[in-house]
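Field notebook, page 657. I keep forgetting to write these up properly, so this time I am using the form the group agreed on. The chain and the ligand, alpha-methylisocitric acid, are recorded exactly as supplied. Prediction of the bound pose follows.
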Amino acid sequence: MAQTLTYKILEKHLLEGELIAGQPIGIRIDQTLTQDATGTTAFLLFESMGTARVQTELSVSYVDHNMSQFGPENHNDHLYLQTIASKTGALHSRPGNGICHQVHLERFGRPGATLLGSDSHTPTGGGIGMLAIGAGGMDVAVAMGGGPFYMTCPKVIGVELTGKLTDWVASKDVILKLLSILTTKGNVGCVVEYFGDGVETLTVPQRATITNMGAELGVTCSVFPSDEMTEDFLAAQGRDDVYEPMSADAGAKYDRVIQIDLSTLEPMAACPSSPDNILPISEIAGRKVNQVVIGSCTNSSYMDMMMAADTFKGRKIDPMVELGIAPGSKQVLQMLAENGGMANLIAAGARIVESGCGPCIGQGFSPADGTVTLRTFNRNFAGRTGTKGDQAYLVSPETAVASAIMGEITDPRDLKNLMGIKYPTIKMPKDFLIDDSMIEQPAPFEESSKVEVLRGPTIVVPESPKQLPETLNGKVLLKCGDKITTDHIMPAGAFLKYRSNVPEYSKYVFNCFNEEIQPTFAERGLALKKDGIGGIVVGGDSYGQGSSREHAALCPMYLGVRVVIAKAIERIHKANLINFCIVPIEFDNPADYDKIGADDEIEIADLVEAIENKDSVTLKNKTGGFEFTGKLNLSARDRDILLAGGLLAYTRKKAGK
Ligand code: MIC
Ligand code: SF4
């Protein structure tokens, strides 16, 4: 039967289950990536599993998120990650070498391979024909130990690209268009696969922008075929030996097909404060802009930066705009430095930010109150910039450059008439600058016992979950609405430095809601935990959108949360809840959500029995005096993990440790 590319790669990696959409499957993982904000926990959990060395073809530990280094925490993490990588056989990409997804694409990604990363934008690798999936650190730790990755066998959404992008319209506009069609909700359990004549007009970095921001659709991952463009990119990275042509079979059937004619697209923006709040630039043009930032794993490639450098050449940014530029990797930064592109940017008035996540995760460049910030990033959840009430628009580098010059949101196609600026044609380099000196090889196995792992005092081994009680006596700690993101649950930005210290980081769980709900979530959670009462979070639709950060499960677990009841729960977050023994329940009847009050006491009799063998569970609202049912959408393995007391306990039990 004619197969999609997704199923071809899955078939080659299938270890458990059958390739039937909706069924649980286990796949072999070839490569893993971790980054510092999730990596310390992933490696601490890996250590707790008792496996000495990573078992994958390649595991890379990146440092790219937490580099502001206010206080010793970040540097403690870096040194731990560097030494634990060496001991356990992982490669280590040092701070300054770049954003994990950009560097992985440049130096390690290969068509047809599977990549599991403890970061939700791992699907960037789909731009080079990989099946690249984001997951919680605990799942990645298991994969590093050679274990399968368990997922739902996906439905495949085919996106047929035809035509060619016109000048000043970018691949960012392709994914923004798709977000306007599919939105951020309701795509759980799907993979997006691109095909059609338009594919061959897009370079690998352009494809990677699209697969990167595919994460915002809530899909498992996105994938492009591997073709001559892929070969050219790999050859320019000195890696053509890993090239393999790959595409779907002719006549492959997709569960749904969406057609996008690239030649009809126009510049677009995701308006505040959701990546699917899409409008064409023509409708918002003229709004005053005070800040523009170009960077993040979505748009920080050499091609993006050179487009900016060429357009800014000999021009200045508007006096009321501050411009930040964060090249995605050392390779990009060094090439710009050597070819003069950086000089154009500096002369135009840009503030150069180091190669890393930086402003994307609220580490600096928080905008002024009441001002508009334009970013080439992938997420604009409320407050993510570090400013409450922020107005962040997500745009292409082309729109960002035009707006920085004009001081207002500007359709880049107007630059020709306004300023006589022609669209610069940037050619894919024949040879990228290759210098892997910031990527450290691990100690050889025979010498690994001699490696001293540096553990600063701010690195605290996380507490393990307690077994679930037969009957749960619980209390609602928080009732929240639709589209609650992991940034709401576990804010990053200024608090990111506490990632390796769960008791400390837990103080900020649901921090964004604290003004409304007093006393704080954390205090109330710990008080209930002391009294043996299980904390319950009630959520609306699409609960847990966004990042892979397992701290959004780990920290609530530490605060005594045992159950999340929501209208729908997003894939990575649901897996993280299960891994930390928090039971994810979905309302049978979404109208029951309205009947629950913020402090209600809820009893779940026979919780353990329900997890053992039932698909639904009865919840008794003792305060409101009514009962309602919730769905337990759990695989057999999910049930075993919950019953074992979380993934770590389950993995140890299976290994007989
Ligand atoms: C993000 O973009 O939100 C992050 C920060 O990269 C997260 C990971 C994290 O919270 O550490 C993600 O996307 O998974
Ligand atoms: Fe880093 Fe932002 Fe990409 Fe997350 S989305 S990996 S914070 S650059």
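OBSERVATIONS:
- The first strand starts at residue 14 and ends at 16.
- The pocket of iron/sulfur cluster (ligand 2) is lined by residues 65, 99, 119, 121, 296-297, 357, 360-361, 377-378 (CB under 6 Å).
FOLLOW-UP: compare against the apo run.
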